[in-house]
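--- STAGE predict ---
source: upstream dedup step, 1 unique chain passed
mode: sequence only
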Amino acid sequence: MEGLNRSRVSEFVLLGLTDSPELQIFLFVSLSIFYLMTMFGNCLILLTVLSSSQLHSPMFFLLSNLSLIDMCLSSFATPKLIMDLFAHDKTISFEGCISQIFLLHLFTGTEIILLISMSFDRYIAICKPLHYSTIMSQGVCIGLVAISWSVGLLHTMSQLVFVLYLPFCGPNVIDSFFCDLPLVIQLACIDTYVLGIFMISTSGVIALISFLLLVTSYIVVLVTVRNHSSRGSSKALSTCTAHFIVVLMFFGPCIFIYVWPFTNFLVDKILSVFYTVFTPFLNPLIYTLRNQEMKAAMKKKVSNQYFSLGKATQPYPAQ
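--- STAGE serialize ---
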């Protein structure tokens, strides 16, 4: 990597979220709790789907992959953010900075395609129920997940191929808690206007178009079921509402940050925390609290574990 980028800057300084000692303590406690609960909640979804035969369906297969991506998205920057709250020098190496950009765009790009796959699954399930098992076969589901990761990888490589060759010879201060592409390319010693336009076209516009496509698909689903029974319409509305909340929480901050890449607002930091910390935390709550099958499977799994533990701790009868 050093051969690709012959710059005098070997590390970047992250300004973090705040310099207030009181806020740092509050953020340390709250972010640590959110991160641990995010990992626990998403791990619980993964284990529940894998161990419950009634959840071996396309929707829950895609949901378990969403939980995996959320765990990755929450882990690429949050642990360092928590440790840096009390660090005197909030620095990150050039290689570490590039790695954060790579992982961020890999996971976000993958999640965009996976959310589109989940909306397609709901469309087939509600609008073409008789053909659902044929269309959403196991091979198709695996293919959708593979395509999601492939698109995410291609997207992040397209972002890094230009950044690696940029000369960083002067300022190295990043006004954020992790390395984000719009902030890093502003530190280059050349005019980055053309690169900014490319970034908008590949990140901001793609996110905006994907968001509009997802909204349109959910509208089509709701229009399709509006004349069905009230029970079916209510279930479809509940499902689409849960999915739409996830889509809005994920795409909203991304669209705002990447459509205006060269403007630094205080709200950018808040939105960055939102889609790297809070969205991965809220996804398990939204899907589990609004899904009866998932809640029932989790209760059964917890009950079985408690029953097994109780039997294991009972003394053996006297001989």
